[in-house]
TrEMBL record:
Native source species: Sphingomonas corticis
Binding region for DNA: 11-30
InterPro entries linked to this entry: Homeodomain-like_sf, HTH_TetR, Tet_transcr_reg_TetR-rel_C_sf
Domain HTH tetR-type: 1-48
Record protein name field: TetR/AcrR family transcriptional regulator
């Protein structure tokens, strides 16, 4: 429910009812609603890494992009984009985790770390000097891209965003990142 409706979009009464509890018994299990977000983050720690390993171990439908294309295709599919509540934690929970406490952020961080580790276990990222940077870029692109594709009303634009993200992930996986210095620009609130 939190993935689907957001942390502020679901109350204790709704969470209790969905879990088959009364609101009073909810507090026997959780001290606060924020603790539920922590448990959701903890429950998802190994999900992304397990998904990567499953895709790598199954016969891929894609002989060119391999598991990376399968992984990116899965995350940018129209079905996944429509299933916010049952899809990946990264795009669904990232905006919620930004405002969460340190323990919840650490659980989310562990999920990202384990996903990156799984991505580095085999080609095309295994043994690459910039493999970790490419893995992080792909995860960030998939999470942000799925969020953007879900946020627009135009289905064609949503599909265009998703396809651009999928293609960029395959490119990132296959191509070393060039060393480019950051620009000297300094952010100010007036920039946004």
């Amino acid at each position: 429910m939190i993935r689907e409706k957001g942390f502020d979009g679901v109350g204790v009464d709704q969470l209790s009812k969905a879990a088959g509890l009364t609101s009073g018994s909810f507090y026997k299990h959780f001290d606060t609603k924020a603790q539920v977000l922590l448990e959701v983050a903890k429950a998802g720690i190994d999900r992304v890494a397990a998904r990567i390993r499953r895709l790598r171990s199954s016969p891929t439908l894609d002989p060119v992009g391999g598991w990376v294309n399968d992984f990116a295709s899965l995350h940018t599919s129209s079905t996944h984009l429509q299933e916010t509540g049952r899809g990946c934690n990264l795009p669904a929970l990232t905006p919620e985790i930004v405002r969460a406490d340190g323990e919840t952020k650490e659980a989310y961080q562990e999920s990202v770390r384990r996903a990156v580790d799984a991505m580095l276990e085999e080609a095309p990222l295994e043994g690459e000097a910039d493999g970790r940077a490419r893995a992080l870029a792909m995860l960030a692109l998939l999470a942000g891209g799925a969020s953007m594709a879900r946020a627009v009303a135009d289905e064609r634009l949503s599909a265009e965003i998703a396809e651009s993200v999928r293609r960029a992930c395959v490119t990132i996986a296959a191509t070393p990142l060039s060393e480019t210095p950051r620009s000297g620009i300094v952010w100010t609130p007036s920039d946004f």
